[in-house]
Amino acid sequence: MYAFEFVKPKTVEEAVAALREGEAKVLAGGQTLIPTLKQRLAAPEKLVSLAGVEGLRGIRTGDGVVEIGAGTTHAVIARELAGAVPALAALAGDIGDPAVRNRGTIGGSLANNDPSADWPAAVLGLGATVVTDRREIAADDFFQGLFTTALEEDEIITAVRFPMPKTAAYAKFDQPASRFALVGVFVARLDGNVRVAVTGASENGVFRWQAAEAALGADFAPAAVEALAPPPAEEMISDLHGAGDYRAHLVKVMTKRAVAACG
Amino acid sequence: MPKDHGIGAPIRRREDLRFLTGSGRYTDDINLPGQAHVHFLRSDVAHGRIKRLGTGAAAAMDGVIRIFTARDFENVGGLPCGWQITSRDGNPMAEPKHPILAEGKVRHVGEIIAAVIAETPEQARDAAEAIEVEIEELPAVIDMAAALGEGAPKVHDDLPSNLCFDWGLVEENREKVDEAIRNAPHVVTLELVNQRLAPNAMEPRVAIGDYDKATDEHTLYTTSQNPHVIRLLMGAFVLGIPEHKLRVVAPDVGGGFGSKIFHYAEEAFCTYAAKVVGRPVKWTSSRSEAFMSDAQGRDHVTKIELALDEEGHFLALRSETLANMGAYLSTFAPAVPTWLHGTLMAGTYRTPLIYVNVKAVFTNTVPVDAYRGAGRPEATFQLERVIDKAARELGMDPVEIRRRNFINPDQFPYETPVALVYDTGNYHATLEKLEELADLEGFEARRQESAARGKLRGLGINCYIEACGIAPSNLVGQLGARAGLYDSATVRVNPTGSITVHTGVHSHGQSHETTFPQVIAEMIGIPEDQIEIVHGDTANSPMGMGTYGSRSIAVGGSAMVRATEKIIAKAKKIAAHLLEASEGDIELKDGKFTVKGTDREVAWADVTLAAYVPHNYPLEELEPGLEETSFYDPANFTFPSGAYACEVEVDPETGKVEVCSFVAVDDFGNVINPMVVDGQVHGGLAQGIGQALLEQCVYDENGQLVTASYMDYAMPRADDLPSFTVDHSCQTPCTHNPLGVKGCGEAGAIGSPPTIVNAVIDALQRGGIEVDHIDMPLTPVRVWSAIRAAS
Ligand SMILES: Cc1cc2nc3c(=O)[nH]c(=O)nc-3n(C[C@H](O)[C@H](O)[C@H](O)COP(=O)(O)OP(=O)(O)OC[C@H]3O[C@@H](n4cnc5c(N)ncnc54)[C@H](O)[C@@H]3O)c2cc1C
Asked: What was the ipTM of the complex prediction?
C-alpha cells in the first residue's frame, strides 16, 4: 500500500466535493479496493469513505419496487430480502465468504463491474435502475464493458431500484478457485417480458442473452432454452478455468437451471 | 470405553488452547530491538540475463539502510543439495550452483535479484521498486520433454543439457522386465501427469537474522520443520559459521507439508545481512511471494505399463517418468522422484519384475521438492490408476484384481523387486474392513438413485502402501543422502518428578506436545500434564533431523522411548537403594516402585527427588541426577498401508464432480492418540482431494506463473469435502521400532488422489462414456471436455 489521505464525509454532497479534489477514490466495503491497494495496483491520493454518509444503507420495499441503498452489505441483503425477493437474497448470500459479505456492498460491486461479479447479472436481469447523486441510469445503459460503467469520475451510486419480478432466479457456476461466477445467469419474468442476463462469461462483461429472452418469452420452460444454440464461443472469456466453448455451453446450462428454479 | 490416559487415549490437543486463542508465538510474532526489514526484488521474467542493476536512486531513498546484489555474496556458498543421485551411466547428477541472489542470469519468476534493507517494510518495498533492472529476456524452457529436446535453450549454460540425472531401479532388471512385457498376454499402458502443486502452508515463511557482536553469535529465527538441518546446511555449506556460534530457532510453525524442510535463500540472506548491517534483519513472505518462492511439489509426467496374465496376475511393471526439478536443486529434490518414488512401485502387490526409470529435468520454474507424501503419491497414483485400467480391460472387478495380487500375510518380511523389505502388513484385512465400512454392496442402489437425478455415480478403490520413518542412516548414505536420518531425545526428569523432553523432531501441526507425553505417561504411570515437550531450538534440543516423511513418532518417538528406558533403569536402581531391595525385584507401575510380591513401595517423585538431593543415595555406584539422551537410528522404513474407497457424482452437463463419501481404512500399526490420527488423516485426505479435483500450478509458455494467487489456484474448502469415515483398527505393529508405530501424516494425501480419479472414471464408464483417464485436477472443464471428446 502507498500512503494516502483518508476522509470520512457525512453527506453525499460532501463526498462528491471531496472526490473532486485531487486523485480521489470512493471507499465502500473495501473488499475490492483494499486488496488492489495492498498489491500496489492503484495509488489514489485520497480515499473518500462512505462509512459515515447518511442515507446510503437499508432496503425499502413497496409499490412494486425494492430499493437498496448503495452502502448495504451483501449480508444484510441476503438476510432481509429472503422473503420478498429470494433470488436477490440467494445471490447475495453466495458472494464470497462471511467476511466479504459483511463488508462488501452492492454499490461497490456495481461501480467496480467485475466481469465475473454477481450483482451486475441481477441488475441487468431485472432491468433495475442505478440511482446516483445526480441522475438515474437504466441498467441497460449502466454496464459498458469490463470494469467500465456509465459513472462519471466523481459520481456516487446512492441506491439501486429493482422492479419486483413475478419470478426470478439466479444460477451460478463457481469458478473453482475464486468462486466468483465462471458463468452466472439471472432469469426474470417481469410484466410482459423475460430478461436473461449473463455474467462471468463474456469478454465484454455482463450481457443480455436476447435469443433466450425471445424463446422464453414465447415458452417459459427449460426446453425452450434447450433448442437454442449457445452464444458465440469466440465472444466468451477463455482462461485456465474454461475456454470459450465451455463457458458458452455453461451459459445454456445455467439458463435452463435458472428457468427451472423459477418454477 | 476408550482409555483416558496413556497410549491409545484420544486426549484433547494441548496445543489448541494457545493456537485457537491467538496466543501462539510464530516467527512473525518475534520482533527484536533495532530490527530492520528486508524486501526482496524478485525476477518477473523466467529466463534472462541481468544486464544492469541501477541501485543508486533506490539507495538514497528514505529509510534505506543498504541494498545487496549478487556481488555482495561473492564469498558465500550456494544453497546445498542434500542428496546426490547417480545416473545409470555411473555419473553423478548435474548440480548447478544455487546462488542466494541471482548471479548473471535469472532462471525462474520469483528468483531474488536484489535485496533492500530499510527501517520499515514499506520503505524497503518502495526502494526495491525504484531499482532499475535491465534484463535481456531469453526463451524459457517450461515443458520437460521440450527441455530435453535437441537445441532447447539451457537453464544452466555451464551444463551439457537440461538433464539433471537419468536414474534406473533396478538397472539389472531392465532387460528382464522388457522381455516379460514383450511376452505377456496383456499389457496395459497409461500415460499420465501428476501435476505441480503449491504447498500453501497457512503461515507463510518468515526469517529473522540476528548477530551479537559481543559474542560473535548468530541466531536465525525461521519457519522450519528442522532447525538442526538448517543450522548444519547454512552454517557448514553457505555461510561458514561453526555450529557453536549459530543458533537456529523454529518456534510455533503454522504448517509445512514439506515446504519448510528446505534451506532457503532468504534464511541465509537474513543471517548474513544481520552481521553486515549490524541490525537484526526480518523478512515476512507475502502470500504472493510464497507462490513463487516456496518449493513446489510433484510435477511428474509418466508412462506406466503393467503386464498381466490371463487371470489378472501382475507379471511385470515398467514406469518411465520425467520429473521436474525446476530451475535449481532444492535441498532434497533429487531424492523425491527416485528413492521415495521408484521404491514404492511394488505397492501392496507381488509383481515379480519391476523397472523404474526417472529422468530429472531443469526448467525455468520454481524449484520442486518434497510435498506431503513426496514421491509416494506419485508412485501410488500411477500404480493404482493402471491397475484400475487393467481391471476394466480384463473385465475384472477392481477389488478382486487387487486382492488376487496382494502380498499375503504369511509372506512378511517381504522383499520387493525395488529395494525395500516390508516388515509387516495385512492388506487383505484392510480391504475387508473397507468393504464393510464402504458398503460396497449398496453401491448399485445409490448409483440408480443418482441416475434418477441425472448424475453419474462412480466408485473408486485404491490400496496404497507408503514408506515412512525415514530412515536407516547407513542405507540412505549408500543411496546418496548427505546426512544421517536418526533422531534424538533428551529426557530430563526434574527434582519433583515432572519431566521435560527435548526432542530433535519438530511439531508444526502434528500435535507432538500432546502425543509424546502420552508415551512417557504410559511408561512411567504419571499424568500427561507432568510432562512437557520442548522442540524447535538448536540451543535446547539435541541434534535431530526434524519432522517430515511421517517420521516423528517412529524415529523421534523411538528415541524418546530409549531415553525413557534408560531413565527407568536408573530410577529402579535408586528405588532399590531406597527400598533396600535388590534391583531385579523392583517394578514400576502407576508411578510407584514396588518390591515384587510385597507392599513396600516408593513413589516416582520420591525417587526423582533422591536423584537430585542425594542424601540417602548410592553415590559410590551411581551418579546423581536423572537425565538421559538417546539417538535412535531406525533399522528400516515403516510401511503404513491402507484401503480407500470413495463415491463421486459427476454432473454430465457441467463436468462438476462432487465427492459423496470417502472411507479410509489405514494400518498405522499402534496408535498413540486416535483422535490426533483421525485429524492427520482428515488433513491428508483434504489435500489429496485438493490435488485430485482442484489444485494446480500452471506456467504459461514464457514461464509466467498463471496461478499466482487464490483467484486462480484452487484450494479445497470444507464444502468441497464429504464427512470422512476413517478407521485404523487394522493394526500390524511395526516390527522394528519400540512403539510398533508406522506414521500417519501423509497417508491421506497419498491414498486419496487415485481413489478419486478411479471413481470419476468409473462414473463415466458406467454412464457409457468411454473415457480411460483424465489428468488431475479433474476440474469441471476437464471432465466436460473428456465427456465431449468421447461422445
Ligand atoms: C475473497 C473475496 C471473494 C469475493 N467473491 C465474490 C463473489 O463471489 N461474487 C462477487 O460478485 N463478488 C465477490 N467479491 C467482491 C465483493 O463482492 C466486493 O465487495 C465488491 O465487488 C465491492 O464492494 P465493496 O463495497 O467492497 O467496494 P470497494 O472495494 O470499497 O470499492 C470497489 C470500487 O467501487 C467504487 N465504489 C464503491 N462504492 C461506490 C459507490 N457507492 N459509488 C461509486 N463508486 C463506488 C470504489 O471507488 C472502488 O473503485 C469477493 C471479494 C473477495 C475479497
From this structure: 0.96
Q: Which residues of A touch B780 (CB under 8 A)?
A: 173, 176, 182, 242
In a domain, residue B396? The reply is yes
As to burial, measured by CB atoms within 10 angstroms (0-12 exposed, 13-18 middle, 19+ buried), residue B31 is: exposed
Q: Which residues contact B221 (CB under 8 A, 6 or more apart)?
A: B27, B30, B206, B207, B208, B210, B249, B250, B251
pTM of the model: 0.97
B654 to chain A, closest Cα gap in Å: 7
Q: Which residue of A has its CA nearest to B121?
A: A1
Beta carbons within 10 angstroms of residue A154's beta carbon:
17
Q: Whose CA is nearest to atom 23 of ligand 1?
A: A108
Could you read off the pLDDT of A11-27 as tens digits, one per residue?
A: 999 999 999 998 999 99
Q: Which CATH number fits domain A54-163: 3.40.470.10, 3.40.50.720, 3.30.2350.10, 3.30.465.10?
A: 3.30.465.10
CA of A69 to the centre of ligand 1 (A): 14
Give residue B464 CA to ligand 1 midpoint distance, Å: 46
Tell me if A180 CB under 6 Å of ligand 1: yes
Q: Is the CB of A33 under 6 A from ligand 1?
A: yes
- Of B620, B613, B521, B622, nearest to B573 by C-alpha is B622
Task: Kindly state whether residues B722 and B605 are assigned to the same domain.
Answer: no
What residue spans in chain A does CATH classification 3.30.390.50 cover?
A: 167-262
Counting one residue from chain A and one from chain B, the pairs whose CB atoms sit within 8 A come to 41
Distances (CA, A) of B482 to B167, B609, B637, B712, B715: 18, 43, 18, 38, 35
| Assigned CATH topology for domain A167-262 | Enolase-like; domain 1 (3.30.390)
Ligand 1 close to Cβ of residue A18 (< 6 A): no
Q: Cis omega (within 30 of 0) on the bond before B413? A: yes
**Contact between B37 and B120 (Cβ < 8 Å):** yes
CB contact under 8 A, A177 and B781: no
pLDDT in tens, A101-158: 999 999 999 999 999 999 999 999 999 999 999 999 999 999 999 999 999 999 999 9
